[in-house]
Amino acid sequence: MAHYPIYTPQQQRILLITSLLVLGGFIIAGLQGYVSAFFGAGILYVIFRSIFYKLVYRKKWNRTLVISGIIVFSLLAIILPFLVLSFLLIDRIQYYAAHTDQILGLVKQVENLTHIKITSQENVRKILQQGGTLASRQLPSLAGGLLDFLVIIGLMFFTLFYMLSDEETFKEGLRRYLPFKRDTLSDLGEQLRNNVNANVLGQVVVSFVQGVLTGLTLWIFDVPDAAFWGTVAFFMAFIPVLGTPLVWAPAGLIQLSQGNTSQGVGILLVGAIVITNIDNVLRITLAKRMGDVHPLVTLVGIVVGVPIFGILGLVIGPTILSFFIVLMQVFAKQNKASREEAELDEANVEKRAEAKAEQ
After folding, report:
1. Among 160, 221, 260, 302, which residue is least crowded by beta carbons within 10 Å?
2. Are 248 and 233 in contact (CB under 8 A)?
3. Domain regions of the chain by residue span
4. Counting beta carbons within 10 angstroms of the beta carbon of residue 242, is it exposed (0 to 12), middle (13 to 18) or buried (19 or more)?
5. pLDDT tens digit string along 189-223?
């Protein structure tokens, strides 16, 4: 006696898709703490692919040697400096959160200078303590989470090694499973590369220059902890519009409140004329070379990315949001092409029908 499946072909397809979604959900839930590793690997792949292609395919260098060099360079030039800055930042934030009297004294001096009541001292103390707690959660710490951080870094470089060592298979998998046409994939790759360059390389360069200039300015005008505040300016520079003025403007006002008129005016002038304008010049220059990203995209990306990825969300958040916008543009373009093809086919059918009718 023959046995027939109890599901129709349509029901089988629906159950298959449902099973894939459920299993994919379990996989994502299990890897949610390490999602930043895969995003980081993808970002590094886009950044270094042109160098990899030139050395391996054109100059015929050893593939494993090139990949190892890329990993070592990215570790020394990108990961470790970012990690050191994070450790420096969290150490000083925790110090100021535990010694609120220094900050309260500065707030009082600013109030006396501007004759504006900022808030009560108790509220300022709570804000500082909450800021220290938030920094502990978002920034990597040697006291806790170091093992997770090492696992994320290891997983990121392992994924990057696979993506580059077996690049042909990786790219073929993308072409096979992504729901886009081959020419659309080329456009998608180009736009994603421009967005990664703008969000990662461009933003990091701009933030680094502004952080260094802010730190040097504060050091020249005898502001205590100039290196720390320069580090704060580096991270603040990722935030559009506000950015480094959140650092050098209060520093200038505090110097004025302490009677150091020349230092305070100097900080404000350098900040308003040099640091702010160098930001505009660099963004315009880099936008021509690497692609431009709207400040609103950067701001929303940071708001979305930081709670999920911690301090790395400053970079990953805007990049993901840019990817989403690019995918929407590609989707709209592909749909438009499909509609035009359908309209053309319909017009051809009508012409053939009219030709038969005339015969």
Report:
1. 260
2. yes
3. 36-136+145-173
4. exposed
5. 777 777 777 767 777 888 888 888 998 998 998 88
C-alpha span between 262 and 66 (Å, rounded): 53
Q: Name the token pair of 177.
A: 């499973």
Question: Pick from 183, 184, 205: which is nearest to 289 by CA?
Answer: 205
Which two tokens mark 66? 């090139």
Q: How far is CA 215 from the centre of its chain?
A: 23
Cα separation, 62 vs 50, in Å, equals 16
CA dist 237 to 26, 93, 98, 223, Å?
37, 17, 25, 19
What distance in Å separates the CA atoms of residue 159 and residue 142, rounded to the nearest whole number? 24
Mean pLDDT along residues 23-27: 82
Asked whether 273 and 263 are in contact (CB, 8 A), the reply is: no
The alpha-carbon radius of gyration of the chain (Å, integer) is 27
pLDDT at 216: 92
What is the band of 143 on the pLDDT scale with cuts at 50, 70, 90?
very low
Closest to 38 in 3D by CA, of 144, 138, 160 = 160
How far apart are the C-alpha atoms of 203 and 207, rounded to whole Å? 6
Rounded distance between C-alpha atoms, residue 139 and residue 311, angstroms:
6
